[in-house]
Specification:
Elements: H1 5-111, H2 116-122, H3 130-140, H4 145-166, H5 172-177, H6 179-306, H7 312-343, E1 352-355, H8 356-371, E2 376-381, E3 386-389, H9 391-407, E4 415-422, E5 425-432, H10 464-475, E6 478-484, E7 488-496
Parallel strand pairs: 2-4
Antiparallel strand pairs: 1-3, 4-5, 5-7, 6-7
Helix pairs in contact: 1-3, 1-6, 3-4, 4-6, 6-7, 7-10, 8-9, 9-10
Length: 497
């Protein structure tokens, strides 16, 4: 048997949805895989950068240590240059003083008066000061062997000159004979001064080079250390930013994955629920269709076999059974199609002007015929007026409510249908005095295939109230229930005009 065209459409749509979900899941998996791959590559680069950062920090300490070492050496040279300059200045001062003393005594001898000046010179004024200066000079030139040799040559000349000056005032021709000695002393002192001045210039040059070297080394070390620190800071800053970006990406991927898991779990639960609903639907259809079809089959067999010998009353009774079974099947199919169209979004709300009083009376008559009960009463309250409602949806609402009221009530009890006109709305009430609905079931009675626990062996599909709720929602109305066990149930449907 061929399936209806809608079945093919539903299957194709289901396949498209499944394919779309699978593609979305594959895309999310690829995205997460790419994120993890990028993370692995980034971690490998981070490991290399960690080593580079360690090398950079080590180079900074090495540069600083090298700068301090070279600066220490330069400071040592500068100190040595300063000490050498001081020593050279001291040597030059001593030589200048010795030469000044010797020259001063010579001048004083030439201009001295016989009594006072000579006695002063003999007492050692001027001449006696040369010996301490010679001792200071020897101490100053101690590290220099060449200067020591010159001092060894100068010292006897000075001693000879001192001995000559400490004698009584010599005659002029004797002083003339001392001129070569005096010139020799001045020559030796001049040589020593020349050597010390040359050495002083060397010390000054070395000191200037040491100062310049210290400045250049410090500046170069600071610049190089700053460059290394900036490089290390750049690597650290980039790693921190990348770590934050990776954390955000992982958080988003994890959140998306959790959402996908929740969606898949919801879809799995929905699929399981749909599977359960299908199983219940097949079970219900097979059960609910079997009884009416068996009734129809049996009645038609009886009518076709021996209907000629039957009375008209018996024939009408069998025909009535066939009609009732056919109406039951039609109502069941109508409920299933209504829910199916509602779930597919194809159930439309088409309002039209209705005169509700004859409409309700007609439904009551139909239900009396279909249920075989005459205790269905209709009552109207308020001023009659035409309202804009969907006749097909309203027919489904009232027939399902009246059918349930008759089904779950004793055969001799009354079912009441009330029509109440209010400003801006119209109210339908269906009241029975049947088995009632347990309080714990009243929140779920509008679910598809759900039936109360106290229905016992009463046949039913669990679709009627689901159809009622769907049709009321399409009208933008409300449905409410009040019920008590073994007392009865009242359904109140409020629809806007």
């Amino acid at each position: 048997m061929l399936l209806p065209t809608s079945a093919y459409v539903d299957r194709e749509e289901l396949y498209k949805q499944s394919r779309s979900l699978a593609d979305a899941a594959t895309a999310e998996a690829e995205k997460l895989k790419q994120v993890l791959l990028n993370l692995q590559q980034t971690q490998a680069r981070w490991f290399l950068e960690k080593r580079l950062i360690a090398v950079g920090v080590g180079l900074v300490f090495l540069v600083l240590g090298s700068v301090n070492l070279v600066a220490h050496r330069s400071m040592t040279r500068l100190t040595a240059s300063t000490n050498g300059m001081e020593r050279t200045y001291s040597t030059l001062a001593s030589l200048a003083k010795i030469l000044a003393i010797a020259t001063d005594v010579e001048v004083r001898l030439e201009n001295a008066e016989l009594t006072s000046e000579l006695s002063a010179i003999e007492d050692g004024e001027g001449v006696g000061a040369i010996t301490p200066e010679v001792a200071i000079l020897r101490q100053a030139v101690l590290p220099d062997a060449a200067q020591q040799s010159r001092l060894d040559l100068l010292e006897p000349l000075l001693s000879q000159r001192i001995n000559s000056l400490q004698q009584t005032l010599p005659p002029p021709q004797s002083r003339v004979s001392d001129r070569p000695l005096q010139q020799r002393i001045q020559q030796v002192i001049g040589e020593m001064e020349q050597v010390e001045r040359s050495r002083l210039q060397q010390w000054e040059t070395q000191a200037a080079e040491s100062v310049r070297s210290i400045f250049l080394i410090n500046v170069g070390g600071i610049l190089l250390s700053a460059a290394l620190l900036v490089w290390v800071y750049y690597l650290l800053h980039r790693q921190i930013n990348e770590r934050q970006q990776v954390e955000v990406a992982l958080f988003e991927a994890n959140s998306q994955l959790e959402i996908e898991v929740q969606e898949r779990s919801a879809e799995l639960a929905q699929t399981k629920e749909i599977s359960d609903l299908k199983q219940r639907l097949f079970s219900m259809v097979s059960h609910e269709f079997r009884t009416p079809l068996s009734t129809i089959l049996l009645s038609t067999q009886l009518l076709s076999g021996s209907s000629e010998d039957w009375a008209e009353e018996k024939k009408r009774k069998n025909l009535s059974r066939i009609q009732s079974a056919a109406k039951t099947l039609a109502q069941l199919l109508n409920d299933i199609l209504t829910l199916n169209r509602a779930e597919a979004g194809k159930l439309e709300f088409r309002p039209e002007l209705l005169d509700l009083e004859p409409f309700c009376q007609q439904i009551v008559e139909e239900m009396q015929l279909s249920t075989g009960r005459t205790q269905i009463e209709f009552t109207k309250y308020g001023y009659s007026t035409q309202v804009n409602l969907d006749s097909k949806l309203l027919h489904s609402i009232l027939t399902n409510l009246l059918s349930n009221a008759a089904k779950y009530s004793p055969p001799d009890s009354i079912v009441l249908l009330s029509l109440i006109y209010n400003p801006g709305s119209v109210v339908f009430q269906v009241k029975d005095y049947g088995i009632g609905i347990p309080p714990e079931d009243q929140q779920r009675i509008y679910e598809t295939f759900y039936r109360s626990k106290n229905v016992g062996d009463i046949a039913g599909t669990g679709l009627g109230l689901a159809v009622v709720k769907t049709c009321v929602d399409l009208h933008g109305g409300l449905v409410a229930v009040t019920s008590a066990i073994a007392t009865g149930t009242t359904f109140t449907v409020t629809l806007p005009q």
